[in-house]
């Protein structure tokens, strides 16, 4: 009866409201229903059209259960005054014409909202809408994690969804390490459930590969993203020795390390034994449920020969054991192969370096020899003088002098401008001198002027050709048949006499 009476009252109110709007010409536009998400802002859009001056805009909320009216917000356009009330204080305000913005909507904000507008003729118009606040549900998984189960058994993971508004959800699924379990259902025997009809997920015959993070995810109209809750599943499995050093032959006094790595959960206890006697080792925890243990021999002895076993146990199953055999031989007398190899390598390297140095020395000597051969080449090949002109001058001068005919000068080829007929004095040999027998007038700029009894220091060349000499402060060529080479003792006297003569002439000139 109360429901029928309330419906009739609301219908009569709406009819009277439409009649009043038709009489005053004030039209309010308000949606019949507005959805909001808890924790987010919501706007109830409201517009009006009127030619009259507005005196008051007021929003009132009425609860759906007890019909209790609560003032939400008032605004006086003439005075510019506005105020929010009660649970809406600081959270409600007017936007645009008469729209109501509620910040951080809560579940208690749900209900019917009345908009009242009063004009300057004190006529009041009203409109009504309903605000529905959608509340995301809470998701809980169990049993409380981390959940530990022994391999080979089955486990049930529960998923509970509650406190959502509305209470229904659109979908539910499970994930393992961020991958949907639906993609892991290979043969249909491993997983069952994990849907909206059966939220709990059953994992059968669990093994070490089933360990990981399991997540229950649901979709709800109150959230644009899936709502999730997770738990961690750990699987206990027996240990196994995954890696061990190989059997080997070592030498006494060597350093030896035997390594053993085992896998298992809980982490296994790894030990080394020899003939049933436990040996000390250094355990080390590694990622992914691995543990290592190293047996170190700082100095091997002959009696260290034997069988060594690595065992791993963790209380699950019988554990695992692997063995190896170490043979210790006596120290090698004399040089071993490694030392011989190093010595051979050093010797070969030294020989190669010596060969490179010899080749480099030969190359440098060759370059120096070529440089010394070409040192005085310009005396034979002055720029601007042709060979034919030199021969003509030599012939003409030879015919006018009283001395013998000078020998032919060596001809220069474009590839070798050195003095091919001259031989350089050997290193360490005494200085050589020659006395001029006949006067000689130079026919070229690179030749010396010779007077009888002049003493020339022979720089290069021998009797029978052209020689390079030093005379009176000049270096040049001279024909060897115009002079006679002096023995060492006679040459020293001749040089001394020539120096005395030069000094005497110098005093007379002074």
From TrEMBL:
Listed PROSITE patterns: IG_LIKE, SH3
A molecular-function term among this protein's GO annotations: cell adhesion mediator activity
Signal peptide (from-to): 1-22
Pfam families xrefs: Ig_3, SH3_9, V-set
Record keywords, A-Z: Disulfide bond, Glycoprotein, Membrane, Repeat, SH3 domain, Signal, Transmembrane, Transmembrane helix
Highest taxon above the source species: Eukaryota
GO cellular component, one term: plasma membrane
Subcellular location: Membrane
Segments forming domain Ig-like: 137-232, 239-327
Transmembrane segments: 337-364
InterPro entries per UniProt: Ig-like_dom, Ig-like_dom_sf, Ig-like_fold, Ig_sub, Ig_sub2, Ig_V-set, Nectin/Nectin-like, SH3-like_dom_sf
Region (Disordered): 394-420
Gene3D superfamilies to which the protein is assigned, alphabetical: Immunoglobulins, SH3 Domains
Xref: SMART domains: IG, IGc2, SH3
SH3 domain location: 429-488
Protein name according to UniProt: Protein amalgam-like
Protein source organism: Branchiostoma floridae
Encoding gene, per UniProt annotation: LOC118429937
